[in-house]
Specification:
The complex is a heterodimer of chains A (715) and B (181). Chain A has 715 residues and is α+β, with helices and mostly antiparallel strands. Chain A is 29% helix and 24% strand. Chain B is built from five helices and six strands; from the N terminus they run βββαβββαααα. The longest helix of chain B is centred in the C-terminal third of the chain and has 20 residues. Chain B starts with a strand and ends in an 8-residue tail after the last helix. The chains are: A alpha+beta (715), B alpha+beta (181). Chains A and B meet through helix 6, helix 8, strand 13 and helix 17 of A and strand 1, helix 1, helix 2, helix 3 and helix 4 of B.
């Protein structure tokens, strides 16, 4: 698998120091068995890693410990944000250890306890972390067999591992993991060459296991970062500029201080901390500040012009066959491909900025003990936030500990550590632990957004439906999912960076949603132009068997071509691939009269991501992707004017709710012969074009801007 | 261009008083400004963090608690307004170690992704089922529309509501202690 750097994912160099950590780790866990797992994955190798000096200097990906009590604990830098990875990683480990999943514990996202990890993004946990943990568990199982064989003086082959025990059937003896590890101090370092249980023999992985922390969640016992409380903790609030780019002229803090709050100005940072949230709010209100607003004042109205005009450079994503590298030859061929076509089509598509709006806003609790800083915060990149904190306070990373409790949603939006730095600054000023929880308005205004974009497509097609040429330019939204899966002989595909007026960053599936929206809408327009059924049109130009399989599976379940349309109803289909998985979605929509409200009635999504680890949780991700994708498709958009977000509240920014939710059917294609890919992102990439194509089917109106119908279809 | 954000008057009635709260069957005398939100008092004074902050304007339902059996947005409810009323939070829903049927149903359907909306969803569902023991899809939409699940698990919440309705019917037929709140 080739992993491309994506400009909107935050990357960071690996810097973990293996030898020092190994010693510290052994001190922490005490006796038992430890398996240290080196990064054997494509990511580490592709990035140079530290692999050149042999195994001893390679980076650790994860480790597993079986204590003298027999409890298996996995230490990983990945975090849980609702993708239910805590559950599927526990399954993968339990499978290889031959223990019930509930006897596997996971320590996640605590930078003092787990090996360095770049972060939880890009659907990478399942393809990279899961195999590492499986190898660690398989290796630990073999060590336990060795211990039993030695103790009983029997052949290893005569032993069986099951249910947390090693058994010698011939003599009817068995020992629990705890009995075997007692008094041991064994450590093994493994690479990528440990044999794993074949997928078709899985007994625990591959099954639907319920969320491992479910009971804590339904009883309100789970503590998110915003629920953490520390002795003597104070409550912090931070002053925001009145508009983007505004600079602070003056701040009078005396009234806030007179109330008994700690008030602080440090450069443009102004904040208060107080012993209660109420006093903090009052002190915050009492700050008298003057700002100088920035001259640059952009608005959502002129956004797309601005993006086109400020485009700087073109990037060609990789070297897909037929993809133009900008040389004269290929340009000539592209033009020939267009000229020789029976029909030519040129269209422009746009996508708006949208907000992640995780239900738990950014939140952090920071505590200094001498010169050591500990921060609890909901983040996708605990080590990244540790780096931000170290930099902000000019201390070494060893003095910073970041703990990321299972978090209330991220969707790509929690890769940065703003609240962590703010809480730590106020904690430093007050000498007490401080909690900062962003308001919804702050989260909408001062987090970052899914990039807006303009996409221009020019294409040629023969009357029989054969695609002859494809030119595709994406301005600003990104390069993910930009390549076409269709067989087109002459292609030019480019991504152009621009000056984004708003702070933008990662969002679930990155630009794959925008690029699939443009491509699959355009495909539908071409199919319509040559009067060929949209499914047949796609199949005619597709040879990739995985892509064809999901397209056919979705069409079949939806009864494409057989289903009868009701009044004001429309059907649409779209397909695509990203992050090593393939997806196709069919949508049935209805326009309600006279309101014009668009109802998505029924969605069928067929998805294939290699070998499935937890079918029900996979379905849950597909359902969630469908609902979230529907919001961006139909009505979500960040509006801004004069450097201010105009709709920074749930009462103004519409998110999908119960009444927006269609009947969702999922078709899972389980390819046990393929490695498991991540699945929390790709199922959303063709929701928007499927809905848009269905809207065209219902009304004859082609919509080329996401959101498609924020105010309904009144035409 | 200069912009001024002048000091705003302190919130009125800031003087603390004692407010009597009855939460999950326990009486608390809370020394607080009566203007504070019920959500703040529950979370910060009583350390009942199951009710979550999501929007501060009663638009997302993450802060939902039951007051005399009715679902209330605790983020926009003044603490003094619920003095001496019967308040149930997610922490008090299970009785004698037995989960409420709605909690059981959420686990059985395996609803949760991030789980941040879950306490508010469960309490809203409890109130709905009390009023409509077998709600139609429209009734579910109408009464749950104010609860946001950003992970998009609505189809599962709907399924869990159906299962919970059956469980509660069974319990009431058995004459058992059906989920009173």
């Amino acid at each position: 698998m080739l992993l491309e750097p994506e400009r909107y994912e935050h990357y960071e160099d690996l810097f973990y120091h293996f030898e020092a950590t190994r010693r510290e780790f052994i001190k922490v866990v005490g006796g038992g068995i430890v398996v240290l797992c080196l990064c054997g994955d494509a990511l580490a190798q592709g990035r140079g890693g530290r692999g050149s000096g042999g195994a001893a200097s390679q980076d650790l990906g994860a480790w597993l410990h079986i204590g003298e009590d027999g409890v298996a604990t996995v230490y990983t830098g990945k975090v849980e944000l609702g993708q239910n990875i805590r559950t599927s990683l526990a399954q993968a480990v339990a499978e290889e250890l031959r223990v019930p999943p509930k006897s596997v514990q996971l320590v996640m996202g605590d930078t003092d306890l787990v090996p360095f990890d770049m972060g939880t993004f890009g659907s990478l946990t399942t393809p990279t972390m899961s195999p590492q943990l499986r190898r660690a568990a398989a290796s630990a199982r073999e060590m336990l067999l060795d211990l039993a064989a030695e103790q009983w003086k029997v052949e290893r082959i005569s032993l069986v591992v099951a249910e947390g025990k090693v058994t010698h059937a011939a003599t009817n003896r068995s020992l629990t993991f705890g009995q075997l590890t007692r008094g041991q101090k064994l450590m093994r370092t493994i690479g990528g060459d440990i044999p794993l249980t074949p997928v078709d023999q899985w007994k625990i992985a591959g099954k639907s296991l319920r969320k491992v922390s479910g009971t804590e969640v339904v009883t309100g016992q789970h503590r998110h970062a915003s629920d953490i409380k520390r002795p003597g903790m104070m409550y912090g609030k931070v002053l925001r500029p009145p508009s983007f780019g505004a600079t602070l002229s003056s701040a009078n803090l005396s009234a806030a201080e007179a109330m008994g709050a700690i008030a602080l100005r440090d450069g443009d940072f102004v904040g208060v901390a107080a012993t209660s949230d109420h006093l903090a709010s009052q002190a915050f209100q009492a700050i008298d500040a003057k700002w100088q607003s920035s001259q640059q004042s952009s608005s959502s109205g002129e956004l797309f012009d601005h993006l086109k005009k400020s485009a700087t450079q073109a990037q060609v994503p990789g070297r897909a066959p037929g993809t133009s590298l900008g040389d004269a030859d290929s340009r000539v061929r592209l033009e020939q491909g267009i000229t020789s076509a029976d029909l030519k089509l040129e269209q422009t598509y746009t996508v708006a900025y949208i907000a992640h709006a995780p239900l738990e806003p950014r939140a952090a609790v920071a505590e200094w003990n001498g010169d050591k800083l500990t921060v609890w915060t909901g983040t996708q990149r605990p080590f990244g936030v540790r780096g931000e904190l170290a930099q902000a306070f000019r201390i070494s990373e060893e003095r910073v500990r970041v703990i990321a409790p299972d978090t209330g949603g991220g969707y790509g939006g929690k890769q940065t550590g703003e609240a962590a730095i703010e809480a730590a600054r106020l904690a430093k000023a007050s000498g007490k632990p401080v909690k900062v929880v962003w308001t919804r308005e702050e989260e909408f205004s001062w987090a970052y957004f899914r990039p807006a974009g303009v996409i221009e497509v020019r294409s040629g097609v023969m009357k029989d439906g054969t695609l002859t040429a494809w030119e595709f330019h994406n301005y600003n939204s990104g390069a993910s999912g930009i390549r076409t899966p269709y067989n087109i002989p002459n292609q030019k595909i480019q991504f152009h960076q621009t000056q984004s007026p708003l702070r933008q960053g990662s969002y679930r599936a990155l630009a794959a949603t925008a690029n699939h929206f443009a491509r699959e809408t355009h495909l539908d327009e071409l199919a319509q132009a040559v009067k060929i059924d949209p499914v047949q049109f796609r199949l005619k130009n597709l040879t990739d068997e995985r892509q064809r399989a999901v397209l056919e599976a979705a069409a079949e379940r939806f009864q494409w071509g057989k289903r009868k349309k009701g009044k004001d109803e429309g059907f649409g289909i779209a397909c695509g691939n990203e992050k090593n998985s393939v997806v196709a979605t069919c949508a049935r929509i209805k326009i309600e009269r006279p309101s014009g409200r668009v109802r998505v009635l029924h969605v069928v999504t067929a998805f294939e991501c290699g070998a499935i680890i937890n079918p029900d949780h996979l379905r849950n991700q597909i359902e969630g992707c469908t609902v979230m994708g529907l919001g961006g498709a139909l009505f979500e958009a960040v509006e801004f004017e004069n450097g201010k977000i105009s709709n920074p509240r749930f009462s103004k920014y519409r998110v999908p709710r119960f009444s927006d939710t269609p009947h969702i059917e999922t078709v899972l294609l389980d390819r046990k012969d393929l490695p498991s890919a991540g699945a929390g992102e790709t199922p959303m990439v063709v929701v928007a074009p499927a809905i848009g194509n269905a809207l065209f089917d219902a009304t004859g109106v082609r919509l080329r801007s996401m959101p498609l119908a924020p105010k309904g279809m009144v035409a | 261009m200069a912009e001024t954000r002048g000091a705003q008057p302190a919130i009125s009635g800031a003087r603390a008083e004692v407010v009597e709260l009855r939460v999950n069957g326990i009486r608390h005398s809370v020394h607080t400004s009566p203007e504070r939100s019920l959500l703040s008092v529950l979370r910060e004074d009583l350390d009942l963090t199951g009710a979550k902050y999501g929007c501060g304007e009663g638009q997302c339902g993450a802060c939902t608690v039951l007051v005399d059996g009715q679902p209330v947005r605790s983020c926009i409810t003044r603490v003094s307004a619920v003095a001496r009323k019967k308040i149930t939070t997610i922490e008090g829903l299970a009785k004698n170690g037995r989960l409420h049927p709605v909690q059981e149903a959420f686990l059985e359907v395996d609803v949760m992704q991030c789980g941040y909306c879950t306490p508010g969803m469960i309490l809203s569902a409890v109130a709905l089922l009390k009023k409509h023991p077998h709600p139609s899809d429209e009734e579910i939409e109408r009464s749950m529309e104010g609860n946001v699940c950003r992970c998009g698990t609505y189809p599962r919440i709907r399924a869990a509501l159906r299962i919970a309705a059956q469980k509660m019917e069974l319990l009431s037929k058995e004459g058992g202690h059906a989920a009173g709140t």
